Amino acid sequence: MKEYVMGNGAIALGALAAGVNLVAGYPGTPSSEIIETVSKYPHEGVHLEWSVNEKAALEVAAAAAYSGARALVTMKQMGLNVASDPLMSAAYVGVKGGLVIVSADDPGPISSQTEQDTRRFADFCRIPVFDPSSPEEAYEMIQDAFEYSEKYSTPVLFRPTTRVCHAYASINVPEKFSPKEYEGFIKDSGRWVIFPRLSYINHGKIEKRNIETGKDFSSYRFNTVEGGETKKAVVTSGVSYAYVKECLKNRNDVKIIKISTAFPFPEDFVLDSLEGVEKALCVEELSPYIEEQILKTAGRHGLDIEVLGKLDGTVPHNGENSVELSAKILNEFLGENKKAEQSDISDSPALPARPPVLCAGCPHRASFYAVKQAMKGRKAFFCGDIGCYTLGNAMPLDMVDTCLCMGAGITMAQGLNHTNDGVCFAFAGDSTFFASGMTGVVNAVYNEADIVLCVLDNSTTAMTGHQPHPGTGRNMAGNFVEKVDIAKVLEGMGVKKILTVNPLNLEESVNAVKECADEKGVKAIIFKSPCIAIAKPSGRCAVDAQKCVNCKKCISETGCPALVAGGGKVTIDRNLCTGCGLCAQVCPVGAIGGEERE
Predict the structure, then answer these.
(1) What percent of the chain has pLDDT over 90?
(2) Of 131, 271, 336, 401, most Cβ neighbours within 10 A?
(3) In this predicted model, what pLDDT tens digit does every residue of 399-426 receive, in sequence order?
(4) Rounded CA gap, 51 and 24, in Å?
């Protein structure tokens, strides 16, 4: 049957077509829809879970692969950092069934802290990596990835980028998916228990295997060369191939060499493709990985070839590629008489600027505002974290002084406490608390830090699409499970003072913050109120024009996007307002009240 799906959906369907037995991951844009797609299609016999974090997901999947099952792990490139500990060891131990780790890279970056390149990680781990250029290719290639994983008994990385993950295409898929039959785990401590001696032996095997894999990849069907005999070539990969192809169409005066398996590098294929070429342009996103491999290959084999790309400034190091950027680069490379084609977008209107903001009615805004009000006149530091609450950095809240990586807000607050005078706050969401925050809390208690932990509990993983987590009471299988109580977890860790408040009650929240700020040790405030995207509002707020004095304090203090200044009075956008009531509590003249929705 034919399905019109997102690139992430194509990856999910490809994994099901490959007979995957277990799928685990942690939500992170641009990868989140892979697991969600699996859940929407019949997947009897396939264990499916949102794991507590990426490390846990990979360890669950590795055990399945030790058993001979096919296992898929999903994450974004930042999550690969979290999973790197088991990944490095699994690369040495090897697998019996297929183990494929999808690490979706985010050039731009559009929704990430970094522009890191998963191909570098593959080289570092010494395991193969696949780099699809389209959803159609991703569907086929993920199936190949499982085959290669089992053929060489190794974990395999799969690296789609944002534009491949979020593009759409029609895919022909089987009407029924059948999970792979597998043997099960066979005890063998000489294979599955990693010891230094075993690692030493396996390291040698890995390097020999990678030479063989590189030769195998030289005949891989998605490593292709197009164009006739010419002295110029464009070497490209991933979605950049699509951009180059759109610019060059079916021309024969320049070769297009597509490399879909960056590591182990398909050297024989590249040598054959570059025969007679005197000048090569490397067009790729993020790092100059392929460019460096071309230079190494040319040096090893004494090729007289000029290589252009990121290293000489022809192609930018940062940001995404595009058809327009590729056309500009190609025009310079090809010369004046050989123009690449470029879509005419001269009449297109400029895209509107849309800075990310907390939604109208978001309880996080109220939580930040309460802390800000409570700390007026006091020196305080605010350590943020990864999630919707990162947006607390925007004016007028200005409540995020640091943001490093997921879970780091809790530990960074400790570092500031040990080296500065002032009240140190750590903000973390409920999902982040479970994913990577708990060890930081234990560290704070054990090392006698003086911090206030603010858990912004909105009962979901909001920024990545409202996935469940251990505190929501349901799992990815749709089953109702015992909720993991954050307050009880904190108590078990040794936190003595734990308060739970509704952030939409401003007075209660401010008092809780003041109470905790005045005590020593590790204190925790759980600001508990559901995300407005999952809690249907029952009312909205309205401004009494007779009472409003146009002081705009509601706007200047909260920054809520539902509040609008104009015409001498503040008004409220009825389509955006959720009736949270924060503005009514801020208004100094009582001009804002509530009204029922129709």
Answers:
(1) 79
(2) 131
(3) 999 988 888 899 999 999 999 999 999 9
(4) 6
Query: CA 435 → CA 56, 431, 563, 574, distances in Å?
Result: 9, 6, 34, 36
Token pair in block for residue 318: 């940062």
Instruction: Please name the residues in contact with 555: beta carbons below 8 A apart, sequence gap of 6 or more.
Output: 563, 565, 570
Please name which of 143, 159, 162, 161 lies closest in space to residue 151, comparing C-alpha atoms. 143
Q: Apex CA 252: angle with CA 251 and CA 255, to 5°?
A: 100
Report strand pairing: 539-543 vs 592-596. antiparallel
CB 284 within 8 A of CB 369: no
Tokens 């982040």, located at residue: 432
Strands (DSSP E) found in 133-242: 156-158, 168-172, 224-226, 232-236
d(CA 215, CA 478): 45
The predicted pLDDT at position 496 comes to: 94
| Cβ density class 45-78: b for 16+ within 10 Å, e for less | ebbbbbbbbbbbbbbbbbebbbbbbbbbbbbbbb
Q: Residues in the chain, how many?
A: 598
Distance, CA of 45 to chain centre: 27
Q: Pairing relation of β-strands 569-572 and 563-566?
A: antiparallel
The rounded radius of gyration (Å) of the Cα atoms in the chain is: 27
Pair type for strands 306-308 and 255-258: unpaired
Q: Which two tokens stand for residue 188?
A: 């063998």
For residue 261, the SS3 value is coil
**Residue given tokens 């006698």 in the structure block:** 448
Mean pLDDT confidence for 61-74: 96
- The answer to whether the pTM exceeds 0.90 is no
Distance spanning both ends of the chain, measured CA to CA: 44
Domains and their CATH numbers in the chain: 2-217 (3.40.50.970), 224-334 (3.40.50.11610), 363-528 (3.40.50.970), 539-596 (3.30.70.20)
Q: Which amino acid is at 322?
A: S
Cα angle at 381 between 375 and 386, to 5 degrees? 115
Q: How many CB atoms within 10 Å of residue 114?
A: 13
- Spell out the SS3 assignment of 101-138: EEEEECCCCCCCCCCCCHHHHHHHHCCCEECCCCHHHH
